[in-house]
Amino acid sequence: MDDRSENHDIEVERGNYACERKISGILDDGSVAFQQPLLARNRKNTTSQIAIVGANTCPIESLDYEIFENDLFKQDWRSRKKIEILQYTILKWALAFLIGLSTGVVGFLNNLAVENIAGFKLLLTGNLMLNQKYFQAFFAFAGSNLILATAAASLCAFIAPAAAGSGIPEVKAYLNGIDAYSILAPSTLFVKIFGSIFGVAAGFVVGKEGPMVHTGACIANLLGQGGSRKYKLTWKWLRFFKNDRDRRDLITCGAAAGVAAAFRAPVGGVLFALEEAVSWWRSALLWRTFFTTAVVAVVLRSLIELCRSGRCGLFGKGGLIMFDVNSGSVLYSTPDLLAVVFLGVVGGVLGSLYNYLVDKVLRTYAIINERGPGFKVMLVMAVSILSSCCAFGLPWLAHCTPCPTGTEGKCPSVGRDSIYKSFQCPPNHYNDLSSLLLNTNDDAIRSLFTSRSENEFQISTLATFFVLVYCLGIITYGIAIPSGLFIPVILAGASYGRLVGRLLGPVSQLDVGLFSLLGAASFLGGTMRMTVSLCVIILELTNNLLMLPLVMLVLLISKTVADCFNKGVYDQIVIMKGLPYMEDHAEPYMRNLVAKDVVAGPLLSFSRVEKVGVIWQALKMTSHNGFPVIDEPPFTEAAELCGIALRSHLLVLLQGKRFSKQKTTFGSQILRSCKARDFAKAGLGKGLKIEDLVISDEEMEMYVDLHPITNTSPYTVLETLSLAKAAILFRQLGLRHLCVVPKTPGRPPIVGILTRHDFMPEHVLGLYPHMDPLK
User: Fold this and answer.
1) pLDDT per residue over 249-272, tens digit each?
2) Which of 106, 195, 591, 691 could be a cystine partner for 482, CB 3.0 to 4.6 Å?
3) Dihedral of alpha carbons 443, 448, 449, 451, sign
């Protein structure tokens, strides 16, 4: 486990704290004196504060998506001129344009590198096979794969462990309000790009589509950091984006741009972000996301046109997958619809089984990865050797197939994108299994979707390829390389669909290429559990609207069947990684509880004018992020809740040393000497820490007015509110803290604070195990 998980330098949510104790002062020996507990119970939240990000275990914290309305924020908004508001609007669209441009260029260069590296490897192997140098061909093939795999694993293990995996669960969790160390850091972006290139070119059964989503999100986060004081990039306009709310919108655009760059599917990218990635959506964000993906589409189109002249090496038609199935017949009858239903049902069953096995493999790999970077690299090397042996060895067991009529001069084919590979076969024959295994994943999918000949691939070949890809896809996902699930699932589904098409050929008039496409759709629906976005992505990939009814039908059936067994693959991975994800619905048992039943303690609160030493000691003793601020006599007639002060704001206030020797209100002086941008959130977790503060003993006895930095309009709920309603409110508003206030007068003004950890099943069912539906 990373040592940072034991360090309070990183701000970590500790759950909810019942209003039991209140710091009242500091004793002569520096210890903190507490008043008597306000409540009898001392309930603690024991949910995990760490999670797995990529292949790394690190602390997590929540994001501040709520608009923090304190006096400094209000002063800043009142002082903004119309020209500044216009600048802010223009800059939002400019950043959306830059995200689309950068993601499109990165996506194109990613594909260009993969196609050239993999193409050179396959050309070398093919030439050695033609010269009957079989052992040399194997060692060249397996050795190239091993070198590329080791390079990808080393980058992930030693530079950015957070870059391992697809990254979609991490992006989904971030957009839900969960942050973790280096989840979107520049080092993660670097490793995601180059690790994905090496991993895909190494012949693993992985895709670059999932990593492209993470890459787009990292690019958006980098552009939306609001500048850097370290590198003197602090342009005045960029300060507008030094908050989690605007960064969330930019990262949403980046995730959509990643899908658009991976599939050349701009509309599908928008719908993917809406259906799978984001937790909050609005119409203004829809426009900007659509604009970003449109920029990606234009950039890709322009760059691909440059490659048509042959100046891109071995790029050819590969890389940016576009499967043309227009030649297939889309006329169908009742038996065809029954065949499609069968595809959907079996695809849903196999997809749910795929998710189950992936979850088990990931949990096993997590144990291995905990042993250190060396074990991560060795695991990748082992999987690489296994994949190479299967890809090169299994074609020897396949029968040689005579070349189809009308393919004279083209079969067996020689070259980078050869369709009919001869392998060890005599003249005028080809090895259909090697044509699938000794090719890039994109070319293999294109071959399965295309219908040059119904008998192009034998039934035994399709069955062997399906079992191999299904198993390799499961054991490959989870190793320490950037790896996506889209391509393995499409490969397995396409081979399964074409196999069903061959078996049902006598009773169905649908083309085997269409069966392959529908099989891929059924597997995608069974694993991803998306419908609208997958449907549009498939249509944009194939450029054929006539298949819309069949694709919709098979997606709906496969998702419905798979939902009977388990959750979608990304939802399962989020749970497995320990990310406290807030669902858009409340669990049924929450309706039997109220808010006060789950608040934990003790809660530390401050007075409006508080002693510096009390604040410093509280920040040093705890890692809480939010502290209630209470107005008390003589400033008010009775104690009342003033609002919430954030830990980061308290640290900035203490660093500025705007103190007073008298216990009086002096917030107006702080407003004149401070600006809202002084309290803006630093990028990549580089904010102030309690260890950075230097406060003398004399200053410890002074006072500070907390009202200017206190959010005086926090969201509050009564202690008797249903926990289910509180959970829905918390999620839909994107909160980090939800104050629980008493229902009856004459009591302390706050009962506790709810954070996302208090809604987690581990916490709630830990307090009330009899409500566990599994018991």
Assistant:
1) 999 999 999 999 998 899 999 999
2) 195
3) positive
